[in-house]
Amino acid sequence: MNSEGPLGPISGPPLAGIRILEVGVMLAGPYATMLLADLGAEVIKIEPPGGEISRQVSDSYFASLNRNKQSVCLDLRSDEGRARLGDLVANSHALLVNMKPSAIQRLGLTYDALRRFNDRIVCVALTGFGLNGGDDPAFDYVIQAATGVAAMTGHPDDPPTLPGYSSVDNSTGLAAALGLLAQIVSGRGGQVDVSLRDVMLSQLNYRASAYLNDGAEPQRYPYGAHSYYVPAQLFETADGYLALFITHDAFWKSFATEAGIEGFTTMAERAAHRQEVLAVVAAQLASDSALGWEARLRPLGIPAAAVRTLPEALEATPEVVVTAGDFKLVRSPIHIDGYHPEYRPPPRLDEHAEIPSVQSS
Prior knowledge:
Layout: E1 2-5, E2 8-11, E3 19-23, H1 28-38, E4 42-47, H2 59-66, E5 69-73, H3 79-90, E6 94-97, H4 101-106, H5 111-114, E7 122-127, H6 140-146, H7 167-186, E8 190-195, H8 196-203, H9 205-214, E9 232-236, E10 241-245, H10 249-259, H11 267-272, H12 274-285, H13 290-297, E11 304-306, H14 310-316, E12 321-324, E13 327-330
Parallel strand pairs: 3-4, 3-6, 4-5, 6-7, 7-8
Antiparallel strand pairs: 1-2, 9-10, 10-11, 12-13
Helix pairs in contact: 1-7, 7-8
C-alpha cells in the first residue's frame, strides 16, 4: 500500500519502520506498546531471565497485553545484558520502561544514561508518581484510592468503590503511547515522564476544575448519577437496568414524548428538581424492560443502553474479537482507513534473541 501524506510518501502500516523497546511489567507499559505494535511498530519486549511476571498470571492475560511483539531475554544487571541493550538502543527510536524510579535509574534506562548510544532515542518512564517521585508502591487500585476516584464512586451510603477493571493502568498506557509518539515526531531524543497519579488526576478534569475554581467537592449520587445532568444515571426497569444519559433539552423532549412525561423542559429546571424528575422517570421506566427501552430509545437518537455483562457485550459485538494464534482477543480500538492490523500471538520467551539491526531515521 502506497499513498502520499502531507509530509511525504506513506508506505505500509502507520508506524512501519519504527522500532520500540519495552521493559514493561504487567499492564500499563505493555498495553502502551501493544497499541503501537498493532499500528505496525516493531516492538521488542526485553524480559528478565525467567520472563516478565505477567507470564505467571495466565497465558490469556499475557496474550491480552503482548500480541504482535518480539521477545528478547536480557539480564540488565549484567555487563553483557547492558551491552546488548546498548546495541538495541543504537538502532531504535524509543524505549518505554514501566518500573520503579530507583530501578529505572539503577539499570540505566533513562535518556541521560542511553544517549551515548543514540542521542535521538526517546526514553519514556512510566511510574507511579513520576521519575523523581520516589518508590512508594503504586498499583492501579492504590492510585484510584489516592486520587479520589474510589471516594467518588459507589452509592452514597456504601463504602468507596473500585471500578471493575484497571482504569488507571490502561489510561496511563494510552498517555505514555501518546507522549512517546509526540517526542518521536519532534525529531528529538529526550526523556518523557508519565505517572499513574498525574494521568488519573488529569482525567478528573471537570471534577477537579469545579473544586479548584468553585469550591465544589464531588458528591456521590445513587445509581452513579451525573453531578450536572438530570436524568443521567442507571435506572431499574421491569427487567434489568438501563443507563440513560440526557444531556440537553432536545434529548429530553424526545425521551419525555416516548415515555409519556410532561414538564421539566429545561436543563436548569431538571437540575433544580432532581429528585422529582428521577422519581417520575423511574416510575415510567419500570413499565418495560431495559432491552425494551433500549430498542425504543435508540432509534430516536437518545443515549440509552441496557446494562450487559461482559460476555453479553462481547456476544453483541462479535466484530471486535480477533484471533492471534490460539488466542481470541479484543482488537485494537484505533481504526485507520486502508490499514488492517495483522494480529500475531504473543512471543515465546526469548523467541527473537537474534534481532537484526535496523538504522533509526
